[in-house]
Structures are given as structure tokens and as C-alpha cells.
């Protein structure tokens, strides 16, 4: 399943800055950063449950927010990109 994850973490305190780094690192475990606080992730249902749980343990729900957009299997028809890195394909092999 293809999901888009966006987040907004309050960074007015040192604890908030730490949460922001932790959220970003957790997102990197499951997907690819496409903008500063936006990640594209290709996960199975079990991974999604685990991923969501980790994110919810990190954030402070009184000051932070996370949004998960479920784009499904036909995401190629739902995602339109213009500008730099428009050749990015999350389902392609990653070469390091």
C-alpha cells in the first residue's frame, strides 16, 4: 500500500526539536523523503500498523500533528509531480 506521510512538529522547545528528528528518522525507516516534512512510503498493512504506532508514541498530540494519506495501489494515477526529481519512483530499486 502506498501512503503519503506529512507532519508538523512544534520546535519551540528542545524536546520538540528532538521529537522532530525522531519523527523524521522513523519515517526514513519506512519510506523516502520527498519534501522537508513529507514522506512517500510503500508498506504492507502490518508495517503500516507498526509505523503509525511508532509515530504516535513520538509526537505530543497537544502540539504536533501527523497526517497519513492512503493512496492505494493505483497511486501512479493519483500523484502528479513537476520540477526537480520528477523521475523518482518509490517502487523502483534503490541503488546506494
**Topology-level CATH name:** Alpha-Beta Plaits
Radius of gyration: 14 Å
What is the beta-strand fraction? 15-25%
Sheet bearing the most strands, described? 4 strands, antiparallel
Based on DSSP secondary structure assignment, what is the total number of beta strands? 4
Reading off the top of the CATH hierarchy, the class is best stated as Alpha Beta
Helix content range: 25-40%
**Strand order, largest beta sheet:** 2-3-1-4
Query: So, CATH architecture?
Result: 2-Layer Sandwich
Number of domains: 1
Counted by DSSP, the helix tally is 2
Description:
The mean pLDDT is 86. Helix content is 32%, strand content 24%. 15% of the residues are buried. It has a four-stranded antiparallel beta sheet with strand order 2-3-1-4, with helices on one face. The protein contains two helices and four strands, in the order E-H-E-E-H-E. By secondary structure, the chain is of the alpha+beta class. It has helices spanning 14-30, 45-58; strands at 2-8, 31-35, 38-42, 65-70. It has a single domain (2-73), classed as Alpha-Beta Plaits (2-Layer Sandwich).
